[in-house]
Amino acid sequence: MIRVGINGFGRIGRAIVRALYES
Fold first, then answer.
1. Does 13 score more than 80 pLDDT?
2. Predicted confidence band at 20 (pLDDT cuts at 50, 70, 90)?
3. What torsion, rounded to 10 degrees, do the Cα atoms 12, 9, 1, 4 define?
4. What is the SS3 assignment for the chain?
């Protein structure tokens, strides 16, 4: 469960953080 959350957040969260950081 925790691992899945980290993987999901790592993929989606990273994309969001990257978009916000670059914008």
1. yes
2. very high
3. 50
4. CHHHHHHHHHHHHHHHHHHHHHC
The HSE-up count of residue 13 (CA atoms within 13 Å, CB side) is: 7
Place of tokens 């994309």: 15
- pLDDT given for residue 1 in this prediction: 66
Q: Which two structure tokens, joined as six digits, stand for 4?
A: 């899945």
pTM above 0.70, yes or no: no
11 residue type, one letter:
R
CA distance 21 to 17: 6
